Each structure stands twice: as C-alpha cells, then as structure tokens.
Amino acid sequence: MIQEKHIEIWNDFLHIVEQIVEPRPFETWFKRIKPVSLVDARLTVEVPSQFFLEYLESAYLDVIRTTLRRVIGADAQLVYRVRPVENTRPMTLPESAGEPPANRPVSINTTQRAAAPGPFVIPGIQRIQIDSRLKGTYCFRNFIEGDCNKMARTAGVNIAAAPGKTPFNPLFIFGGPGLGKTHLAQAVGIAVKEKYPDLQVLYFTGNEFKSRYSYAVQVRNNLADFMAFFMKIDVLIVDDIQDLASPGAQNAFFSIFNHLHQNGKQLILTSDRPPVELQSFEDRLYSRFKWGLSVELFSPDYATRLSMLRARCEREGVQMPDEVLEYLAAHIRTNFRELEGTLVSLMAHSVVAHQECTVEMAARLTEKIVGEGRSSLSIDKIQRCVCDYFHLTRDALVATTRKRQIVQARQIAMFLSRNLIPNCSLATIGAEIGGKDHATVLHACTTVSDLMSTDRKFKKYVTDLEKMLTAGTR
Length: 474
Fold this sequence. Notes:
GMP Synthetase, Chain A, domain 3, Rossmann fold, Helicase, Ruva Protein, domain 3, 4 domains, three-stranded mixed β-sheet, 20 helices, 53% helix, flat
C-alpha cells in the first residue's frame, strides 16, 4: 500500500530528528505528533494540547525549522492543530462540556420608592435573571474522590438527586484551604442544574453576602428587595460562611435560612473551621448550621494526590515521568491547591528552561513553593517526636490514663499539631491523638498555653520539641 505523502514526509522528518534529539525527549515531544495533511509545502500536524505546542516551539524550534526545510524545501511551513478533546484517549476526570444551564428569569415583588420622598411605597413586580455563578469545571466528573472526601462527596451526590428532600439540609462542609470545599459545593449546584433546569441555584461567598447586605441597607435603603431576591432561590450555596461576621448580615441570613429551610429548599455552606469554632456567630444561627450534616474534608492521602496529578496531566495532554509525579505526591501533603499549583509551575519552568522535568527539578521547586517543612510535618510525626522526647510508647500516649506526665505529653502533642500544621482542625487532631473530641483538644491547647506562661520547665519542653520538629523538617 502506498503511503500518503504527508505521512511519508513526516516519517523522514522523524528519522532525522531522532539522530539529533535524546531518546527520551524524542519519545515525549515528537512521537506524539500526528501528521494530518500536506498541501504544497505546507505540512499540518496535530498536537495533544496548547501547552504541548508552546513547549515544543520554545524548546525545539530551530531543530524543527532546519529539519523541515531539509525534507520539504526552503518554502516549508508547519501548521499546528491542537487535538480536540473528543479525539484524545478517555480521561479519568474529563472537563465539563460547558457551563451549567442558566437559571430561568423569575418574578420578584419589589418595593419601589416614589420619585418624591413620602410615607408611601409602591409595590411592583420585576422580572430578573439570576446568574447561578457556577463554574463548569467544578463538576463531579473533575472531583478527585478519596478517603479524605468520600463521605462529603456521597452526601453531595444524594443532595443533587433530591435537593431539599434529604436529611442533609443544610450540608455544612468544613476543612482547610485547598481541600476541595468550593469544588464540591459547586459540583452539587451544577448537578442540580443538569437534573432540574428549572430550579434556581445561586453560589455566593460570605464576604459577598455581607457586602451586598451593606449596599442594600446603607446605599439603597431597601432591605426588602435584598431579602426577596434570596428567598427566590431553590439551592443556596454560601462559600466561606465564616466571613459573615457582621451582626446585621447575620440577622438577614438567619431570616433567609429559615425561609428556605421551612420551604424545602437546599442550603450548602462551607467553612474553614467546624461549626463549634464559629465563635462570632449568634447562637440561633450557629445551632441551625448543625441541623443537617456537618462533614469534614481531610488532607488527601498519597493515592488520592497521585490520582489528581495524573488526571491534571491527562487534561493538559502532557506526559510527566512517573517518578516526578510520585515525588510530588509524596512531598506535598497539605492540600490539592498546593499540589496542582506546583505541578503547573513545574510544567512552566520546564518550558522556560528548555529542560525535561526531573525529580531534581521537582525537589527544587517544591522547596521554593511550599517549603519542605510544611510538606512533611504531620500529626503522626509530632506524636512520634513527643513520645521520643518523653520516653513514652505511642500506645501510652493515647491511652486513657490520669498520669500527669502522660496527660501533659498528650496535651503538648495536641498543642503542637494545632500550631505547626496549617489549617488543621481540632476535630482532626482529636481523632488522631487518642480519639478525643474537639472540646478536649481546645482544653489541651489552653492548658499548655497557661502552663507555658507560669512554668519555665514546662515551657522548655514545648520549645525544645518545637525546635526539633521545625529543624528536622527543613
């Protein structure tokens, strides 16, 4: 069978380039290119992604230009075509096909003030389009599931199937930054819009709610319209609810919460701390946050971190050495955001430096972006360090005992975990150190702080351990 001309030309091109470029980058950056057509001296090829194209041109432009002129002639031209998503091999987590369905216009009763100030208000009806403010890529298909978030994801899927009709109302998702709270909350909203296009879904942050409330009250002097707007929502998602610190805004949100909940509407709230730590909230609002399901997102385990890295590489159409991905997954343990950000930075550095991604490059970048100390310190490591310092076994540290030495060692482990591990919740610390509840951990941290201010010997214990932990992880 006679080969088509463009394939023959491309094979000649590859044969020459193979003699110039090292075997590994040749496999990574040239073998994955597919010839499409040849018209006169214009060769069209298909590449996996835009990132792939930019790297190829920045690293090998001279090689490509010289070789192409050699096989085609002085007038040779190369045209790139980025491979459509549907032509790539199936991905574990494909991107959303598009934005979720828009909310339908709704009618809202408004109170419009007369042109001249007076004691009367004129009621009216206004048709408005409510923007759901959901981001299409934050769908369930892009959400990496692992032991760290399985319960929360399962609850979210159940809510999306029947919003407002499950026991999970409100759904209160809490955990440190970068663990997927926003992604999961929006994924529920997107799934609801896909299944129930007529429902009104709205995503808001606590700060935005507070700002809109202040504008409605102080600038427009019209709180009624503000309240009417939110009471038309079927699924209300409020991200970072801990930022809703204003008493007036909390009072308005309390009324909205009650109205929506009593009418079978779904509420989804996220926070960087559990409900018990929202000390600036009124008791009546705080208690309502606990009506449904409160679920924590934990730091991802190694397998989940590695799955996320591989999924992102597939989405970008980039091949990354397994040992590099494994290094990143092993050394960046805090959250998905730092992990993904380091991966993207590694890709960019590789392009700028015209170098292949290596473990050594990953190690240098990891140290600069997240710091080795932050990436390797864990509650387990703190417990081991405390046990070695006080000559205790791990079983003794977590055992139920009233012995003063053991109780104080356990309290110090809790105190150090709270202070040295960013965004580590009291519930997480208690669960890993003897199965204690958040109140016990809070009491332990307070006790250690008090003793450090009155007992010099005790303070030396804590500072010694802190130096050992921070020095040993740098």
